[in-house]
Amino acid sequence: MNIITQAIAGHLGDVELAATTISITVISGFNYGLLLGMASALETLCGQAYGAKKYHILGIYLQRSWIILFLCCFLLLPFYIFATPILKFIGQTDEVAEMPGVLSIWLIPVHFCFAFHLPMNRFLLSQLKAQVVAWMSLVGLVVNLLASWLLVYVLDFGVVGAVVALDISWWVLFLGNYGYTVCGGCPWTWTGFSMEAFSELWGFFKLSASSGVMLCLENWYYRILLLMTGYLENVTLVIDALSVCMNINGWEMTIPLAFLAAAGVRVANELGAGNGKAAKFAIKVSVLQSTMIGICFCLVILVAIDKIALVFTVNADVLKEVDKLTYLLAISVLLNSVQPVLSGVAVGSGWQATIA
């Protein structure tokens, strides 16, 4: 959904692509990395509890995660409200800083959606309900396409319309998963809201914080890379070219991230059931499969980067800059096919603080 939004922005103009990339990838992405990491604590807790057949506690864990992430959203809110002053303070030009500040305000609904969607996603995956998550994601994607078409091309709201469509689709995705859960999809693990969710919040927060630091440090180097381009000449051109490469990398990255989730859940389930040998076997299988897929995509990028980049822009100068980065992009895709899987193993094993 993020890629669709940035692709639409790229066809609206070069400045729109740069602004949307900074607001989604840097401002929203900075906070998403922290919230995603904090939500991953549920992969450890829910995964191991599910493996140990302690089903009743999963719903309590989910509610605790909602409480902690919702409160953290308020602490992170200034990054959205003061995006333009922050970008200028760290040395970005007015051209780079102004429009992302406007778009960041419109991304606040997505920011709060993350606090509920990410824990819900981990809650369902830890119960091996990946098909449910996948179908709901398809619904969200279709809604995103329709809303983007309506708001951008019919109602002519421009790049703001694309961002609003993103808001709508993320909330549809969460509400679909939530509806499935409370309407009987998880009868063993969801028994309704409970005051028990407000107990032991400090211990839950410490594990969530460790998880958040571990994954956000991995996530933030992409954001820092984009910010560094703001100090180069022809800043809009450079940001556009790098955003195309990062979007292609992010597109392919969804596969290793899927292996991250699968490895985390499987390892946690097996450890919860006291089966260390099966957990080790799951690690070997996931690393091997993800690496093989990474090799295939590496070759695709080397052969067809010029065709793939047309999804985001038709600007000849941007396409020329993207072509210069082909080999670095291919290497990044290959290396990133392994590293997220190992992060999933760490999450499933409860090693977040050590890895952080």
TrEMBL record:
Q: What's an example GO BP annotation here?
A: xenobiotic detoxification by transmembrane export across the plasma membrane
Q: Where, subcellularly, is it found?
A: Membrane
- Gene Ontology CC annotation, any one: membrane
Family matches, as InterPro entries: MATE_euk, MATE_fam
Q: Which GO terms describe its molecular function?
A: antiporter activity; xenobiotic transmembrane transporter activity
Q: How does it sit in the membrane?
A: Multi-pass membrane protein
* Transmembrane intervals: 22-45, 66-87, 99-120, 132-151, 157-180, 281-305, 325-347
The record's principal subcellular location, in a coarse class, is: membrane
Name of a matching Pfam family: MatE
Q: Which UniProt keywords apply?
A: Membrane, Transmembrane, Transmembrane helix, Transport
Under NCBIfam families, the record lists: matE
The record ties this protein, via PANTHER family, to: MULTIDRUG RESISTANCE PROTEIN
Similarity annotation: Belongs to the multi antimicrobial extrusion (MATE) (TC 2.A.66.1) family.
Name of the protein this chain belongs to:
Uncharacterized protein
Q: Which organism is it from?
A: Dipteronia dyeriana
